[in-house]
Structure formats: C-alpha cells, structure tokens
Amino acid sequence: MQNTIFYSNKSINCNGNLIDINNPLIMGIVNYTDDSFYDGGLLKNIKHAVKHTEKLINEGADIIDLGAMSTRPGATEIDLTTEKTKIKNLLIILKKEFPKTLISIDTYRAEVADIALSEGADIINDISGSQFDERLIDIITKHNAPYILMHTQGKPKTMQTNPKYNNIVNDVIYFLSEKINKLHLKGVNDIIIDPGFGFGKTLEHNYQLIKNLEYFKVLNKPILVAISRKSMIYKLFNQSPSESLNGTTILNTISLLKSAKIIRVHDVKEAKQIISILNMIQ
Question: What is the largest distance, in Å, between two alpha-carbon atoms of the chain?
C-alpha cells in the first residue's frame, strides 16, 4: 500500500462502496441557503447550485456537502417543509448529473435525512451530534449510512453566547466518545468525527482544538475539519470571510499534518493543492 504521511488504514462504507481515506478527502460546500456566513444567497436557484457543484467536482472535490439551512452563529431555523423541498429537488438533479460523486447532507433533522437518504444521498452531516433531533440516529440505522458526528454547545441562535468549558479538548473528546458508544449500540459503525470549530467556541477554544487535534485519534474514527473562512480566521485579523483564504489554507495544512482525513472547504482547488504538496514532500 502507498506510504503517505496520511496513512491510517481506514475506509467508510457508502451505499455498499468502500471509500478509502488513507489519503485525505476534500468535501466541497454547496450552501443552497440565503444567509450562510460566507456564500449565503449566491446560489439563487437550482441552476446556479448545479453549476457550482460541477465547478467543485472539476476542481477535485471527493464529496459534496449540500445544505439548505444556515447554521452560522445567530442563524434562525427555516421551516421543515422548506428544507425538505430544497434538499430533495436539488439532490435528485445532482445524483443524476454526478452519479459517481458522494453527496453528504448537512442537516440535523430526521425527516430531512430520511428523504435525502431515500433519494440517494450517501452521508449525513449533523452539526448537533444528534442533540437537536434524537430520531436522527434511527434514520441513520435504518439506511445504514455513514454519519458525521459533530460537537456543538447550544443551538446556532445562541451558541456563541459566552461558551464555557472545563477543558475544551477533554470536554469535546468526552462528548464525542459518549456519542460514539451510543451509535455503536444502535449498530452505526461508519462514523466520522468533527470537533465543531466555531460552534459554541471562543476564538481561543478553536485554536486549542487545532493545537491538540492529534489527540482526537484516541477515538479511532476519521477526523473531519471544517474551518473554511470561519470567524476564527477573519476575526483574528479584523478581516472579512472573503479575505480569509490564506488563513484557511494554513489551518487546513496544519489539520492534515495533525491527522485530519477530510477537510470541508469552499475553495476546492486550493485544498487539492495542499494535499498534492504534502504528498510530494513525503
């Protein structure tokens, strides 16, 4: 087997297909939303969303992460019917146009996950770690789908209101460990973990997580890092999300060197270059 600095001998089962993650994967973001912090409102209709998805795939995205409801700090929930309709209508077209591309659905609602997996989605990406809708795990079990388990403290509307921890790294690892145990009892084994950068964390909390990311290997699950253009970058330099590509690239590089297996990004071309360069160094 190829000897890379990313070697981990792990795979995930997506609809019967084993997806090798010995070399990291790139998850391209498709925010079919009105108010996401960086690109909300840019994809005004299905045509724009399909074109953007095609661009990300052509640039090297291994997974497309499709969301219809913003979960940025301060975001307000949209109604269930709207989320279901937007996800289903776009997903049907994406699976037809790009049948070989893995599609992840960014939702914490069981009903949305159920209809998406029924229409061919491959993965569920849940920012809540099943805290917002406990029925979601039963849906994951029903469809035998991979599950991205993320840590958050509080709902998006209030999660950045004075978040506190005893020890941010220990507390997040403990949360994920408890959830993994419960998922295993339900028969869910294809689990990807996400420390939840920016979700109920201060600037200092986020950088402590990055600094100690390799400790999450104790959970023996692939690590996903989603820091693309987030406030932990642009607030540090008093910039805007549109000025935060350089910081994103630096943090994604550090994350990969500290054992991340999936990086969730807006800018796929640049993420692809990171992985190519690191592999060349090895």
Answer: 49
Among candidate residues 84, 86, 201, 230, the one labeled active-site is 230
Residue 202 has a CB neighbour count (10 Å cut-off) of 16
Residues recorded for the chain: 282
pTM (predicted TM-score): 0.91
Helix or strand holding residue 18 (H, E): strand 17-20
Domains defined along the chain, listed by start: 23-281 (3.20.20.20)
Q: Which of 16, 18, 21 is nearest to 4 (CA)?
A: 21
Tell me if 61 sits within 8 A of 268, measured CB to CB. Answer: yes
- How far is it, in rounded angstroms, from Cα 185 to Cα 189? 9
Tens of pLDDT, residues 175-221: 999 999 999 999 999 999 999 999 999 999 999 999 999 999 999 99
Note if 264 is an active site residue: yes
Q: Helices marked H in 26-130 — which ranges? A: 46-59, 80-97, 110-118
CA 56 to each of CA 50, 66, 155, 270, 276: distance values in angstroms, whole numbers, following the listed order: 10, 12, 29, 11, 17
Q: Tell me if residue 149 falls in helix, strand or coil.
A: strand
**Cα separation, 127 vs 136, whole angstroms:** 12
Q: 3-class DSSP state for residue 262?
A: strand
Catalytic site includes residue 182 = no
CA atoms of 127 and 149, how far apart (whole Å): 7
| Catalytic residue of the set 95, 264, 269, 272 | 264
